[in-house]
């Protein structure tokens, strides 16, 4: 259950990264992470790049 929830949150965050100008920290809190650093670390483990790298590539 925890892995599913994490994957769901990360997927929702990718949508926000691609469609809003919200900061990484705002997105992290919006999708349920306790902080931007933990969110970025988890994002990198799942996708192999940081949220800012993902956003920069404009996916």
From TrEMBL:
SUPFAM superfamilies: Homeodomain-like
Keywords: DNA-binding, Transcription, Transcription regulation
Organism in which the protein naturally occurs: Candidatus Blautia faecavium
InterPro entries assigned to the protein according to its UniProt record, in alphabetical order: Homeodomain-like_sf, HTH_AraC, HTH_AraC-typ_CS, Tscrpt_reg_AraC-type_HTH
Signal peptide: none
This protein's name: Helix-turn-helix domain-containing protein
Residue stretches making up the HTH araC/xylS-type domain: 1-57
GO molecular function: DNA-binding transcription factor activity; sequence-specific DNA binding
Pfam families membership: HTH_18
SMART domains: HTH_ARAC
Superkingdom, taxonomy of origin: Bacteria
